[in-house]
Batch of 3 targets.
Target 1
Amino acid sequence: DIGLVEKKFFDMEIQKYVNKITVQTSAGTKTYDYENKQFAQVQIHSKQINGANVILEYKMVVTNKGELPGRVGLIEDDLPDGLTFYSELNSNWYLSDGKLYTNALATEEIPAGESKEVTLILGKKMTGDNVGTTTNTATISMSSNEKAVEDGNANNNTSKAEVLIQVSTGLIRWIGITMGIILILALIAFAIILFKNKKLPKIFMFILVIG
Protein backbone atom coordinates (compact mmCIF):
# COMPACT_ATOMS: atom_id res chain seq x y z
CA ASP A 1 0.00 0.00 0.00
CA ILE A 2 1.72 3.20 -1.19
CA GLY A 3 -1.13 5.48 -0.13
CA LEU A 4 -2.87 5.83 -3.50
CA VAL A 5 -6.53 6.86 -3.30
CA GLU A 6 -8.95 6.07 -6.10
CA LYS A 7 -10.47 9.20 -7.64
CA LYS A 8 -14.24 8.98 -7.48
CA PHE A 9 -16.53 10.01 -10.31
CA PHE A 10 -18.71 13.12 -10.05
CA ASP A 11 -21.80 13.54 -12.24
CA MET A 12 -24.93 15.65 -11.79
CA GLU A 13 -27.83 15.08 -14.19
CA ILE A 14 -30.88 17.26 -14.87
CA GLN A 15 -34.16 16.12 -16.39
CA LYS A 16 -36.85 18.63 -17.28
CA TYR A 17 -40.53 17.63 -17.42
CA VAL A 18 -43.93 19.14 -18.07
CA ASN A 19 -45.75 18.56 -14.82
CA LYS A 20 -49.04 20.38 -15.31
CA ILE A 21 -50.81 22.66 -17.79
CA THR A 22 -53.72 24.92 -16.87
CA VAL A 23 -55.84 26.46 -19.64
CA GLN A 24 -58.01 29.46 -18.76
CA THR A 25 -60.60 30.48 -21.37
CA SER A 26 -63.95 32.24 -21.50
CA ALA A 27 -65.54 28.81 -21.02
CA GLY A 28 -63.72 28.13 -17.77
CA THR A 29 -60.51 26.61 -16.45
CA LYS A 30 -59.12 23.15 -17.18
CA THR A 31 -56.04 21.56 -15.65
CA TYR A 32 -54.12 18.71 -17.25
CA ASP A 33 -51.64 16.55 -15.30
CA TYR A 34 -48.86 14.93 -17.28
CA GLU A 35 -46.80 13.05 -14.67
CA ASN A 36 -43.31 13.90 -15.85
CA LYS A 37 -43.69 14.08 -19.62
CA GLN A 38 -41.03 15.72 -21.77
CA PHE A 39 -43.61 16.27 -24.49
CA ALA A 40 -47.18 17.40 -23.77
CA GLN A 41 -49.97 18.81 -25.87
CA VAL A 42 -53.26 20.60 -25.29
CA GLN A 43 -56.05 21.68 -27.61
CA ILE A 44 -58.05 24.87 -27.28
CA HIS A 45 -61.27 25.39 -29.20
CA SER A 46 -61.03 27.92 -32.01
CA LYS A 47 -63.81 30.01 -30.45
CA GLN A 48 -61.87 30.30 -27.18
CA ILE A 49 -58.26 30.59 -28.39
CA ASN A 50 -58.08 34.40 -28.50
CA GLY A 51 -57.31 35.69 -25.04
CA ALA A 52 -56.82 32.23 -23.54
CA ASN A 53 -54.20 32.05 -20.81
CA VAL A 54 -52.02 28.92 -20.60
CA ILE A 55 -50.06 28.27 -17.39
CA LEU A 56 -47.17 25.83 -17.79
CA GLU A 57 -45.71 24.13 -14.74
CA TYR A 58 -42.31 22.54 -15.31
CA LYS A 59 -40.43 20.26 -12.96
CA MET A 60 -36.66 19.84 -13.00
CA VAL A 61 -35.20 16.76 -11.33
CA VAL A 62 -31.50 16.91 -10.45
CA THR A 63 -29.98 13.49 -9.78
CA ASN A 64 -26.53 12.64 -8.51
CA LYS A 65 -25.34 9.99 -10.96
CA GLY A 66 -21.80 9.92 -9.61
CA GLU A 67 -20.05 8.54 -6.56
CA LEU A 68 -19.45 11.77 -4.67
CA PRO A 69 -22.04 13.85 -2.80
CA GLY A 70 -22.34 17.32 -4.25
CA ARG A 71 -24.33 20.48 -4.75
CA VAL A 72 -25.88 22.27 -7.71
CA GLY A 73 -25.12 25.94 -7.28
CA LEU A 74 -27.02 27.33 -10.24
CA ILE A 75 -29.63 26.17 -12.75
CA GLU A 76 -30.21 28.22 -15.89
CA ASP A 77 -33.40 28.19 -17.92
CA ASP A 78 -33.78 29.63 -21.42
CA LEU A 79 -36.99 31.66 -21.36
CA PRO A 80 -38.62 30.99 -24.77
CA ASP A 81 -40.10 33.80 -26.82
CA GLY A 82 -43.79 34.21 -26.10
CA LEU A 83 -43.66 32.90 -22.53
CA THR A 84 -44.05 35.12 -19.47
CA PHE A 85 -42.17 34.76 -16.19
CA TYR A 86 -44.23 35.35 -13.03
CA SER A 87 -41.93 36.34 -10.19
CA GLU A 88 -44.76 36.06 -7.68
CA LEU A 89 -45.19 32.37 -8.57
CA ASN A 90 -41.47 31.58 -8.65
CA SER A 91 -39.89 32.80 -5.43
CA ASN A 92 -36.69 30.80 -6.05
CA TRP A 93 -36.12 32.11 -9.59
CA TYR A 94 -34.94 35.43 -11.01
CA LEU A 95 -34.77 36.91 -14.51
CA SER A 96 -31.55 38.35 -15.90
CA ASP A 97 -30.68 39.24 -19.51
CA GLY A 98 -33.56 37.21 -20.88
CA LYS A 99 -32.71 34.05 -18.95
CA LEU A 100 -33.99 32.54 -15.72
CA TYR A 101 -31.79 31.39 -12.86
CA THR A 102 -32.25 29.60 -9.55
CA ASN A 103 -29.86 28.71 -6.74
CA ALA A 104 -32.54 26.91 -4.76
CA LEU A 105 -30.36 23.78 -4.44
CA ALA A 106 -27.10 25.56 -3.68
CA THR A 107 -27.15 24.75 0.04
CA GLU A 108 -28.56 21.22 -0.31
CA GLU A 109 -26.09 18.37 -0.54
CA ILE A 110 -27.27 15.62 -2.86
CA PRO A 111 -25.87 12.18 -1.93
CA ALA A 112 -24.88 9.74 -4.66
CA GLY A 113 -27.95 8.14 -6.22
CA GLU A 114 -30.43 10.66 -4.82
CA SER A 115 -32.44 13.50 -6.41
CA LYS A 116 -33.77 16.96 -5.67
CA GLU A 117 -36.54 18.86 -7.48
CA VAL A 118 -37.30 22.45 -8.42
CA THR A 119 -40.35 23.81 -10.22
CA LEU A 120 -40.84 26.68 -12.64
CA ILE A 121 -44.15 28.26 -13.68
CA LEU A 122 -44.47 30.20 -16.94
CA GLY A 123 -47.44 31.61 -18.83
CA LYS A 124 -48.51 32.10 -22.42
CA LYS A 125 -51.21 34.49 -23.61
CA MET A 126 -52.85 33.07 -26.72
CA THR A 127 -53.78 35.15 -29.76
CA GLY A 128 -54.66 32.46 -32.28
CA ASP A 129 -51.48 33.18 -34.23
CA ASN A 130 -49.02 31.88 -31.65
CA VAL A 131 -50.05 28.23 -31.49
CA GLY A 132 -47.45 25.54 -32.05
CA THR A 133 -44.58 23.95 -30.14
CA THR A 134 -42.69 25.73 -27.38
CA THR A 135 -39.34 24.26 -26.30
CA ASN A 136 -37.97 25.08 -22.88
CA THR A 137 -34.39 24.12 -21.94
CA ALA A 138 -32.76 23.92 -18.52
CA THR A 139 -29.03 23.57 -17.79
CA ILE A 140 -26.91 22.95 -14.71
CA SER A 141 -24.58 25.95 -14.80
CA MET A 142 -22.68 25.33 -11.56
CA SER A 143 -22.07 22.19 -9.52
CA SER A 144 -19.48 21.31 -6.90
CA ASN A 145 -18.25 18.80 -4.33
CA GLU A 146 -15.79 18.75 -1.42
CA LYS A 147 -13.13 16.94 -3.50
CA ALA A 148 -13.20 19.64 -6.19
CA VAL A 149 -13.76 16.98 -8.84
CA GLU A 150 -15.24 18.31 -12.07
CA ASP A 151 -18.44 16.91 -13.54
CA GLY A 152 -17.32 14.01 -15.69
CA ASN A 153 -20.36 13.89 -17.96
CA ALA A 154 -21.49 17.17 -19.49
CA ASN A 155 -23.92 15.39 -21.83
CA ASN A 156 -26.62 15.14 -19.15
CA ASN A 157 -26.28 18.69 -17.81
CA THR A 158 -29.00 19.96 -20.15
CA SER A 159 -32.57 18.81 -20.66
CA LYS A 160 -35.58 20.14 -22.57
CA ALA A 161 -39.35 19.82 -22.45
CA GLU A 162 -41.78 20.61 -25.26
CA VAL A 163 -45.41 21.77 -25.20
CA LEU A 164 -47.63 21.71 -28.28
CA ILE A 165 -50.67 23.99 -28.20
CA GLN A 166 -53.19 23.28 -30.97
CA VAL A 167 -56.47 24.75 -32.16
CA SER A 168 -59.45 22.42 -31.98
CA THR A 169 -62.55 22.92 -34.12
CA GLY A 170 -64.49 19.97 -32.70
CA LEU A 171 -64.49 18.34 -36.16
CA ILE A 172 -62.75 15.18 -35.00
CA ARG A 173 -65.36 14.61 -32.29
CA TRP A 174 -68.25 14.97 -34.74
CA ILE A 175 -66.53 12.66 -37.24
CA GLY A 176 -66.28 10.03 -34.52
CA ILE A 177 -69.97 10.39 -33.61
CA THR A 178 -71.00 10.21 -37.28
CA MET A 179 -68.91 7.09 -37.90
CA GLY A 180 -70.46 5.46 -34.85
CA ILE A 181 -74.00 6.18 -36.12
CA ILE A 182 -73.13 4.83 -39.58
CA LEU A 183 -71.75 1.65 -38.03
CA ILE A 184 -74.91 1.09 -35.95
CA LEU A 185 -77.17 1.65 -38.98
CA ALA A 186 -75.07 -0.78 -41.02
CA LEU A 187 -75.42 -3.44 -38.33
CA ILE A 188 -79.17 -2.95 -38.19
CA ALA A 189 -79.43 -3.19 -41.99
CA PHE A 190 -77.36 -6.37 -41.97
CA ALA A 191 -79.58 -7.83 -39.25
CA ILE A 192 -82.71 -7.01 -41.28
CA ILE A 193 -81.29 -8.84 -44.28
CA LEU A 194 -80.53 -11.91 -42.16
CA PHE A 195 -83.99 -11.75 -40.60
CA LYS A 196 -85.70 -11.62 -44.00
CA ASN A 197 -83.65 -14.62 -45.07
CA LYS A 198 -84.73 -16.37 -41.86
CA LYS A 199 -81.15 -16.57 -40.64
CA LEU A 200 -81.74 -14.41 -37.56
CA PRO A 201 -84.28 -15.34 -34.85
CA LYS A 202 -86.93 -12.72 -34.07
CA ILE A 203 -85.76 -12.31 -30.48
CA PHE A 204 -82.21 -11.37 -31.62
CA MET A 205 -83.65 -8.92 -34.11
CA PHE A 206 -85.72 -7.29 -31.37
CA ILE A 207 -82.72 -7.00 -29.01
CA LEU A 208 -80.52 -5.51 -31.73
CA VAL A 209 -83.04 -2.85 -32.76
CA ILE A 210 -83.92 -1.92 -29.17
CA GLY A 211 -80.23 -1.78 -28.24
Target 2
Amino acid sequence: FGCYIHDNGTFGIDSIGTASTIIMSFSISEANGNHGVEMASAAPSRISNCTIDGNTGAAVDGINYTTPNTGTVLLNNILSNNGRYGANATDGDSIYADYNDYFGNGTAARNNIPVGPNDAALDPQFTDRAGGNFAIGTNLKALGFPGAFPAGLSTGYLDIGAVQRQEPAGGLAGSYIALP
Protein backbone atom coordinates (compact mmCIF):
# COMPACT_ATOMS: atom_id res chain seq x y z
CA PHE A 1 0.00 0.00 0.00
CA GLY A 2 1.29 3.44 -0.92
CA CYS A 3 4.56 2.27 -2.50
CA TYR A 4 6.67 3.94 -5.18
CA ILE A 5 8.46 1.18 -7.11
CA HIS A 6 10.72 2.51 -9.85
CA ASP A 7 13.88 2.15 -11.94
CA ASN A 8 14.54 -1.51 -11.15
CA GLY A 9 16.63 -3.43 -13.66
CA THR A 10 14.07 -6.25 -13.73
CA PHE A 11 10.51 -6.49 -12.33
CA GLY A 12 8.86 -3.82 -10.22
CA ILE A 13 7.08 -6.52 -8.20
CA ASP A 14 7.62 -10.22 -8.84
CA SER A 15 5.39 -12.89 -7.29
CA ILE A 16 6.67 -15.84 -9.32
CA GLY A 17 6.83 -18.97 -7.21
CA THR A 18 4.46 -17.77 -4.52
CA ALA A 19 0.96 -19.04 -3.81
CA SER A 20 0.06 -16.04 -1.67
CA THR A 21 -2.67 -13.52 -2.22
CA ILE A 22 -1.15 -10.30 -3.55
CA ILE A 23 -2.84 -7.01 -2.61
CA MET A 24 -1.46 -3.82 -4.14
CA SER A 25 -3.25 -0.49 -3.66
CA PHE A 26 -2.46 3.20 -4.13
CA SER A 27 1.01 2.37 -5.43
CA ILE A 28 3.10 3.41 -8.43
CA SER A 29 5.28 1.01 -10.43
CA GLU A 30 7.17 2.84 -13.17
CA ALA A 31 10.27 2.78 -15.34
CA ASN A 32 11.24 -0.81 -14.50
CA GLY A 33 13.27 -2.90 -16.94
CA ASN A 34 10.71 -5.71 -16.97
CA HIS A 35 7.00 -6.03 -16.09
CA GLY A 36 5.75 -3.44 -13.61
CA VAL A 37 4.00 -6.29 -11.78
CA GLU A 38 4.57 -10.00 -12.49
CA MET A 39 1.74 -12.09 -11.04
CA ALA A 40 2.16 -15.87 -10.98
CA SER A 41 -0.04 -16.80 -8.08
CA ALA A 42 -2.40 -19.66 -7.38
CA ALA A 43 -4.35 -17.42 -4.98
CA PRO A 44 -6.72 -14.59 -5.92
CA SER A 45 -5.03 -11.20 -6.02
CA ARG A 46 -6.16 -7.59 -6.10
CA ILE A 47 -4.55 -4.57 -7.74
CA SER A 48 -6.54 -1.40 -7.17
CA ASN A 49 -5.93 2.33 -7.51
CA CYS A 50 -2.40 1.89 -8.85
CA THR A 51 -0.46 3.65 -11.56
CA ILE A 52 1.66 1.29 -13.63
CA ASP A 53 3.52 3.35 -16.20
CA GLY A 54 6.52 3.30 -18.51
CA ASN A 55 7.82 -0.20 -17.88
CA THR A 56 9.81 -0.63 -21.07
CA GLY A 57 10.98 -3.28 -23.46
CA ALA A 58 9.34 -5.01 -26.43
CA ALA A 59 7.98 -7.88 -24.30
CA VAL A 60 7.26 -5.89 -21.12
CA ASP A 61 3.75 -5.41 -19.71
CA GLY A 62 2.39 -3.15 -17.04
CA ILE A 63 0.91 -6.23 -15.36
CA ASN A 64 1.60 -9.79 -16.49
CA TYR A 65 -0.64 -12.54 -15.08
CA THR A 66 0.64 -16.04 -15.82
CA THR A 67 -1.83 -18.07 -13.75
CA PRO A 68 -4.63 -15.84 -12.45
CA ASN A 69 -7.15 -17.48 -10.14
CA THR A 70 -10.88 -16.86 -9.68
CA GLY A 71 -11.35 -13.81 -7.51
CA THR A 72 -8.49 -11.83 -9.06
CA VAL A 73 -9.44 -8.14 -9.30
CA LEU A 74 -7.98 -5.33 -11.43
CA LEU A 75 -9.86 -2.13 -10.50
CA ASN A 76 -9.30 1.67 -10.78
CA ASN A 77 -5.79 1.53 -12.27
CA ILE A 78 -3.85 3.53 -14.82
CA LEU A 79 -1.88 1.19 -17.10
CA SER A 80 0.04 3.49 -19.43
CA ASN A 81 3.10 3.76 -21.67
CA ASN A 82 4.26 0.17 -21.10
CA GLY A 83 6.36 -1.62 -23.74
CA ARG A 84 3.80 -4.24 -24.79
CA TYR A 85 0.40 -4.48 -23.01
CA GLY A 86 -1.08 -2.52 -20.16
CA ALA A 87 -2.30 -5.85 -18.76
CA ASN A 88 -1.62 -9.32 -20.13
CA ALA A 89 -2.83 -12.77 -19.04
CA THR A 90 -2.40 -16.33 -20.25
CA ASP A 91 -6.11 -16.80 -19.46
CA GLY A 92 -8.07 -13.86 -18.13
CA ASP A 93 -11.43 -15.59 -17.62
CA SER A 94 -10.96 -15.54 -13.85
CA ILE A 95 -10.12 -11.80 -13.67
CA TYR A 96 -12.65 -9.11 -12.80
CA ALA A 97 -11.35 -5.93 -14.49
CA ASP A 98 -13.16 -2.57 -14.63
CA TYR A 99 -12.65 1.18 -14.16
CA ASN A 100 -9.11 0.96 -15.57
CA ASP A 101 -7.48 3.48 -17.89
CA TYR A 102 -5.30 2.00 -20.66
CA PHE A 103 -3.23 4.58 -22.54
CA GLY A 104 -0.22 4.53 -24.87
CA ASN A 105 0.88 0.92 -24.38
CA GLY A 106 3.18 -0.38 -27.13
CA THR A 107 1.13 -3.28 -28.54
CA ALA A 108 -2.38 -2.84 -27.13
CA ALA A 109 -4.32 -1.99 -23.99
CA ARG A 110 -4.80 -5.57 -22.89
CA ASN A 111 -4.39 -9.20 -23.90
CA ASN A 112 -6.76 -11.89 -22.55
CA ILE A 113 -8.08 -9.38 -19.98
CA PRO A 114 -11.82 -8.70 -20.03
CA VAL A 115 -12.94 -5.24 -21.15
CA GLY A 116 -14.73 -3.50 -18.30
CA PRO A 117 -17.82 -1.43 -19.15
CA ASN A 118 -16.28 1.55 -17.34
CA ASP A 119 -12.74 1.32 -18.77
CA ALA A 120 -11.15 4.37 -20.39
CA ALA A 121 -8.41 5.05 -22.93
CA LEU A 122 -7.48 8.60 -21.96
CA ASP A 123 -4.14 10.35 -21.58
CA PRO A 124 -3.71 10.58 -17.78
CA GLN A 125 -2.16 14.05 -18.21
CA PHE A 126 0.32 13.43 -15.38
CA THR A 127 1.54 16.64 -13.74
CA ASP A 128 5.25 15.76 -14.17
CA ARG A 129 5.78 12.16 -15.23
CA ALA A 130 9.54 12.60 -15.77
CA GLY A 131 9.86 14.11 -12.31
CA GLY A 132 7.79 11.36 -10.64
CA ASN A 133 4.62 13.42 -10.05
CA PHE A 134 1.76 11.18 -11.17
CA ALA A 135 -1.11 13.48 -10.18
CA ILE A 136 -3.70 13.12 -12.94
CA GLY A 137 -5.38 15.70 -15.13
CA THR A 138 -9.06 16.55 -14.99
CA ASN A 139 -10.01 14.01 -17.70
CA LEU A 140 -9.74 11.08 -15.23
CA LYS A 141 -11.27 12.96 -12.30
CA ALA A 142 -13.97 10.96 -10.49
CA LEU A 143 -14.09 8.16 -13.11
CA GLY A 144 -13.27 5.37 -10.63
CA PHE A 145 -15.42 2.94 -8.72
CA PRO A 146 -17.60 3.22 -6.64
CA GLY A 147 -19.46 5.73 -8.84
CA ALA A 148 -23.23 5.41 -8.51
CA PHE A 149 -24.40 2.86 -5.96
CA PRO A 150 -27.39 0.61 -6.70
CA ALA A 151 -30.72 2.46 -6.77
CA GLY A 152 -28.77 5.70 -7.40
CA LEU A 153 -29.18 6.91 -3.80
CA SER A 154 -25.48 7.69 -3.33
CA THR A 155 -22.57 8.48 -5.62
CA GLY A 156 -18.87 8.18 -4.84
CA TYR A 157 -16.13 10.18 -6.55
CA LEU A 158 -12.83 8.32 -6.64
CA ASP A 159 -10.12 9.06 -9.20
CA ILE A 160 -8.50 6.32 -11.28
CA GLY A 161 -4.85 5.64 -10.39
CA ALA A 162 -2.66 5.92 -7.32
CA VAL A 163 -2.71 9.70 -6.90
CA GLN A 164 -5.99 11.42 -6.07
CA ARG A 165 -6.54 15.01 -7.20
CA GLN A 166 -6.96 17.78 -4.65
CA GLU A 167 -9.29 20.51 -5.75
CA PRO A 168 -8.50 24.10 -4.84
CA ALA A 169 -10.27 25.33 -1.73
CA GLY A 170 -13.26 27.49 -2.47
CA GLY A 171 -15.42 29.78 -0.47
CA LEU A 172 -14.40 32.76 1.59
CA ALA A 173 -10.87 31.74 2.50
CA GLY A 174 -8.99 34.84 3.60
CA SER A 175 -12.17 36.91 3.70
CA TYR A 176 -14.32 38.01 6.54
CA ILE A 177 -17.72 39.52 7.01
CA ALA A 178 -18.16 42.33 9.54
CA LEU A 179 -21.11 41.63 11.81
CA PRO A 180 -22.99 44.41 13.59
Target 3
Amino acid sequence: MPSNEDEMSQERAITAVRAGNRDAFRYLVETYQDRVFRTCCHLLRDPPSAEDLAQETFLTAFRKIDRFDPDKGSFAIWIITIARRLCLNAMKKSRPPNFAGPPEPAEPGQLAARSDTFRALDRALLELSDEHRRAFVLAEIEELPYEDIAVIEDIAPGTVKSRVSRAKLALQGSLRPTYEELNHEA
Protein backbone atom coordinates (compact mmCIF):
# COMPACT_ATOMS: atom_id res chain seq x y z
CA MET A 1 0.00 0.00 0.00
CA PRO A 2 1.32 3.45 -0.83
CA SER A 3 2.01 5.80 2.06
CA ASN A 4 0.42 9.24 2.32
CA GLU A 5 3.73 10.70 1.14
CA ASP A 6 3.71 8.41 -1.92
CA GLU A 7 0.12 9.40 -2.68
CA MET A 8 1.01 13.09 -2.41
CA SER A 9 3.99 12.56 -4.74
CA GLN A 10 1.71 10.78 -7.21
CA GLU A 11 -0.83 13.58 -7.02
CA ARG A 12 1.90 16.15 -7.64
CA ALA A 13 3.25 14.11 -10.57
CA ILE A 14 -0.23 13.77 -12.11
CA THR A 15 -0.87 17.51 -11.68
CA ALA A 16 2.50 18.31 -13.29
CA VAL A 17 1.87 15.95 -16.22
CA ARG A 18 -1.55 17.51 -16.78
CA ALA A 19 0.18 20.92 -16.82
CA GLY A 20 2.49 19.75 -19.61
CA ASN A 21 5.52 18.52 -17.66
CA ARG A 22 6.40 15.28 -19.46
CA ASP A 23 9.31 14.54 -17.11
CA ALA A 24 6.93 14.24 -14.16
CA PHE A 25 5.45 11.14 -15.76
CA ARG A 26 8.78 9.36 -15.22
CA TYR A 27 7.98 9.16 -11.49
CA LEU A 28 4.72 7.34 -12.23
CA VAL A 29 6.44 4.95 -14.64
CA GLU A 30 9.17 4.15 -12.11
CA THR A 31 6.58 3.61 -9.39
CA TYR A 32 4.36 1.23 -11.39
CA GLN A 33 6.53 -0.35 -14.09
CA ASP A 34 7.16 -3.62 -12.23
CA ARG A 35 3.53 -4.08 -11.24
CA VAL A 36 2.28 -3.33 -14.76
CA PHE A 37 4.84 -5.68 -16.34
CA ARG A 38 4.00 -8.52 -13.92
CA THR A 39 0.30 -8.06 -14.60
CA CYS A 40 0.88 -8.17 -18.36
CA CYS A 41 3.13 -11.24 -18.02
CA HIS A 42 0.55 -13.15 -16.04
CA LEU A 43 -2.22 -12.27 -18.46
CA LEU A 44 -0.34 -12.78 -21.73
CA ARG A 45 2.03 -15.57 -20.65
CA ASP A 46 4.61 -14.17 -23.08
CA PRO A 47 7.29 -11.87 -21.59
CA PRO A 48 8.26 -10.09 -24.85
CA SER A 49 4.61 -9.31 -25.62
CA ALA A 50 4.07 -8.33 -21.99
CA GLU A 51 6.94 -5.86 -22.22
CA ASP A 52 5.40 -4.29 -25.34
CA LEU A 53 1.97 -4.07 -23.70
CA ALA A 54 3.45 -2.60 -20.51
CA GLN A 55 5.04 0.16 -22.59
CA GLU A 56 1.77 0.68 -24.43
CA THR A 57 0.00 0.89 -21.07
CA PHE A 58 2.16 3.82 -20.02
CA LEU A 59 1.80 5.55 -23.40
CA THR A 60 -1.97 5.21 -23.13
CA ALA A 61 -1.93 6.49 -19.54
CA PHE A 62 0.18 9.47 -20.58
CA ARG A 63 -2.14 10.34 -23.48
CA LYS A 64 -5.27 9.92 -21.34
CA ILE A 65 -4.00 11.32 -18.03
CA ASP A 66 -6.81 13.90 -18.07
CA ARG A 67 -9.31 11.03 -17.82
CA PHE A 68 -7.87 9.82 -14.52
CA ASP A 69 -10.34 10.63 -11.74
CA PRO A 70 -9.02 10.04 -8.21
CA ASP A 71 -12.61 10.02 -6.92
CA LYS A 72 -13.19 6.77 -8.86
CA GLY A 73 -10.09 5.00 -7.51
CA SER A 74 -6.35 5.15 -7.13
CA PHE A 75 -3.85 5.65 -9.91
CA ALA A 76 -2.70 2.05 -9.34
CA ILE A 77 -6.18 0.72 -10.11
CA TRP A 78 -6.47 3.00 -13.15
CA ILE A 79 -3.13 1.94 -14.68
CA ILE A 80 -3.70 -1.79 -13.97
CA THR A 81 -7.13 -1.48 -15.58
CA ILE A 82 -5.51 0.01 -18.70
CA ALA A 83 -2.97 -2.83 -18.75
CA ARG A 84 -5.71 -5.44 -18.35
CA ARG A 85 -7.80 -4.00 -21.18
CA LEU A 86 -4.81 -3.79 -23.54
CA CYS A 87 -3.84 -7.38 -22.72
CA LEU A 88 -7.38 -8.68 -23.23
CA ASN A 89 -7.59 -6.86 -26.57
CA ALA A 90 -4.25 -8.34 -27.64
CA MET A 91 -5.41 -11.81 -26.61
CA LYS A 92 -8.57 -11.43 -28.69
CA LYS A 93 -6.57 -10.40 -31.77
CA SER A 94 -4.27 -13.39 -31.77
CA ARG A 95 -3.94 -16.85 -30.35
CA PRO A 96 -2.00 -16.91 -27.13
CA PRO A 97 1.69 -17.61 -27.74
CA ASN A 98 3.41 -20.61 -26.21
CA PHE A 99 4.70 -19.75 -22.78
CA ALA A 100 8.40 -20.46 -22.63
CA GLY A 101 8.73 -19.91 -18.90
CA PRO A 102 8.49 -17.29 -16.20
CA PRO A 103 9.62 -13.73 -16.90
CA GLU A 104 13.21 -12.90 -16.15
CA PRO A 105 13.73 -11.15 -12.82
CA ALA A 106 13.86 -7.36 -12.89
CA GLU A 107 17.29 -7.25 -11.22
CA PRO A 108 20.28 -9.56 -11.80
CA GLY A 109 20.52 -12.30 -9.25
CA GLN A 110 16.91 -11.89 -8.16
CA LEU A 111 15.23 -15.29 -8.16
CA ALA A 112 18.22 -16.70 -10.03
CA ALA A 113 17.60 -20.25 -8.92
CA ARG A 114 13.87 -20.97 -9.19
CA SER A 115 12.90 -24.00 -7.14
CA ASP A 116 10.81 -26.90 -8.36
CA THR A 117 7.95 -25.54 -6.29
CA PHE A 118 7.93 -22.21 -8.14
CA ARG A 119 8.12 -23.92 -11.52
CA ALA A 120 5.20 -26.13 -10.50
CA LEU A 121 3.26 -23.04 -9.40
CA ASP A 122 3.93 -21.35 -12.75
CA ARG A 123 2.63 -24.44 -14.58
CA ALA A 124 -0.40 -24.66 -12.30
CA LEU A 125 -1.22 -20.97 -12.88
CA LEU A 126 -1.20 -21.61 -16.63
CA GLU A 127 -3.82 -24.33 -16.15
CA LEU A 128 -6.29 -21.91 -14.54
CA SER A 129 -8.94 -20.16 -16.61
CA ASP A 130 -8.07 -16.58 -17.55
CA GLU A 131 -10.66 -15.21 -15.11
CA HIS A 132 -9.41 -17.29 -12.17
CA ARG A 133 -5.74 -16.59 -12.96
CA ARG A 134 -6.34 -12.82 -13.16
CA ALA A 135 -8.23 -12.79 -9.86
CA PHE A 136 -5.59 -14.93 -8.12
CA VAL A 137 -2.65 -12.90 -9.44
CA LEU A 138 -4.21 -9.57 -8.53
CA ALA A 139 -5.26 -10.77 -5.06
CA GLU A 140 -2.40 -13.01 -3.99
CA ILE A 141 0.61 -11.79 -5.95
CA GLU A 142 -0.18 -8.10 -6.40
CA GLU A 143 -1.97 -8.07 -3.01
CA LEU A 144 -4.82 -5.86 -4.17
CA PRO A 145 -8.01 -5.74 -2.09
CA TYR A 146 -11.04 -7.51 -3.56
CA GLU A 147 -12.81 -4.17 -4.01
CA ASP A 148 -9.98 -2.87 -6.22
CA ILE A 149 -9.93 -6.10 -8.24
CA ALA A 150 -13.68 -5.78 -8.70
CA VAL A 151 -13.15 -2.32 -10.22
CA ILE A 152 -10.33 -3.56 -12.47
CA GLU A 153 -12.26 -6.64 -13.64
CA ASP A 154 -15.63 -4.82 -13.73
CA ILE A 155 -17.31 -7.49 -11.59
CA ALA A 156 -18.82 -7.69 -8.12
CA PRO A 157 -16.48 -8.13 -5.12
CA GLY A 158 -18.26 -11.41 -4.32
CA THR A 159 -17.36 -12.70 -7.77
CA VAL A 160 -13.72 -11.79 -7.12
CA LYS A 161 -13.82 -13.71 -3.83
CA SER A 162 -15.37 -16.71 -5.57
CA ARG A 163 -12.79 -16.69 -8.39
CA VAL A 164 -9.88 -16.43 -5.96
CA SER A 165 -11.31 -19.25 -3.87
CA ARG A 166 -11.78 -21.49 -6.92
CA ALA A 167 -8.28 -20.65 -8.15
CA LYS A 168 -6.83 -21.63 -4.77
CA LEU A 169 -8.70 -24.94 -4.81
CA ALA A 170 -7.50 -25.69 -8.34
CA LEU A 171 -3.92 -24.75 -7.43
CA GLN A 172 -4.03 -26.96 -4.34
CA GLY A 173 -5.12 -29.89 -6.48
CA SER A 174 -2.46 -29.19 -9.11
CA LEU A 175 0.34 -28.68 -6.60
CA ARG A 176 -0.47 -31.59 -4.28
CA PRO A 177 1.58 -34.13 -6.32
CA THR A 178 4.58 -31.76 -6.36
CA TYR A 179 4.28 -31.18 -2.61
CA GLU A 180 4.02 -34.92 -1.92
CA GLU A 181 6.99 -35.62 -4.20
CA LEU A 182 9.13 -33.00 -2.45
CA ASN A 183 8.19 -34.36 0.98
CA HIS A 184 8.87 -37.92 -0.15
CA GLU A 185 12.39 -36.95 -1.28
CA ALA A 186 13.20 -35.23 2.04
